[in-house]
Each structure stands twice: as C-alpha cells, then as structure tokens.
Amino acid sequence: MALISAKTILTSLCLFHITLAYFFYTNPNAIADQALVWVLGEAMGMPQTAAFAAPSPACSLLAVALLLVGLSDLLSLSLPEEIWLVQYWGAQAPLRITLFAAFSLFSYFSTPSYGRSGGGRMSHPRTPPSTFMAGSAVGGGDGLRNRVFFTFAFLEFLSWFWVWVTLKEEASRFVVRKKRRGSSNGGRGEVL
C-alpha cells in the first residue's frame, strides 16, 4: 500500500506547476537561484543561464503553458475514479515519463555549441554568449542546455515515475474492488 495516494501526488504536481507558472511570470530569477537547481547543475556540469534574470516574453509563454497544464490536470482529477485512475492517468503517466526522461538525457548529453572548458563530459561549459550576433553558432537547442531546464525535466521525470508506480498499484486494487462489487450483486450488475 502506498504511503501517499496517487490523487494526492497528482494534486501536488498540479499545484507545483501552477506555482512555477506564477514565478516564471513574476520573478523567474527566484527559480534559477534555488539551491536544488544549483546543486543539480553543479553536480551534472550544467551551464548557468542569464535568460531567467528578468521576466521575458519566453518566460511569460512558459508561465501560461504551465498554468494551463496545472489547471487541466487538476480538473481531470474531478472525473469519476475509473476514468482518471485507470484510463486517463494510466496513459498519461508513461508518456510523461518517457518525454521528461528524453528531455533530461538530451540536456545532459548534448554539448552546447559554445563548447566546454575541458575535455571531459563533467567539465564545466564555457560561458554562453550574452548577446546574439548575426552569424553566431548558437542554436535553438542551446536554450535547453541549462541548469533550470535540466532540474525541471529531471524532477518531472522522477515525479511522474512515482505517480505511475502508485497508479498501477491503486488501479489494480480498484479493479479487484470493482469485481468484488459485481460478484456480490450476484452477476446482476451494480444497483444504483
């Protein structure tokens, strides 16, 4: 039996997304300065980024996307238990695990176009260019190679894995409970 139910974990994740949306909209630097972001970034050799120093249009777009995801996921928990437990989140959790694992691996294994200071994978990246210059080699993927994105993707991967394990356990108990209710009615089906 799980210590924390899947519904509680999912509600917490939804509120986490809504809180992140608020901070990305108002003060993205508060997220970039978190101790967990710094520790994971240093441990994995991820570069810092100045993109979160002040609110920007990209941060606002990210905030709106996180708010929509948080609210829609929270709304899905109001559906009947069979729908959200067995069908909806049973399909969503493995998909999100796969996506966030791929994002984490991409962020970790790809080298920024501006290179690394040493020869090894764990050597710290060089400082990214602070301004865009015409003809520079900075690509769009470089925006995903930073501490904030890696930490977000890695924590989402871990959280969704926890959700998936808990969902599988609760879904099997739900199916057993439903079968038991059906057999106690003598095969007549459920009485409303």
What does this entry look like structurally?
The protein is mostly helical. Helices cover 64% and strands 0% of the residues. The chain has six helices and no strands. Helix 1 runs antiparallel to helix 4. 21% of the residues are buried.
Sum up the structure in keywords.
single chain, 192 residues, mainly alpha, 64% helix, elongated
Structural class: mainly alpha
Biggest beta-sheet profile: none
| Rg over CA atoms | 21 Å
Distance between the termini: 29 Å
Overall, the morphology is elongated
Uncertain residue segments:
130-136
Strand content: under 5%
Query: What is the number of strand segments?
Result: 0
The residue fraction in helices comes out at 55-70%
Q: How many H/I helices?
A: 6
Mean pLDDT: 84
**H/E topology pattern:** HHHHHH
Write the SSE topology.
Layout: H1 6-26, H2 29-32, H3 35-44, H4 57-76, H5 81-109, H6 147-184
Quick summary:
This protein has 192 residues and is mainly α.
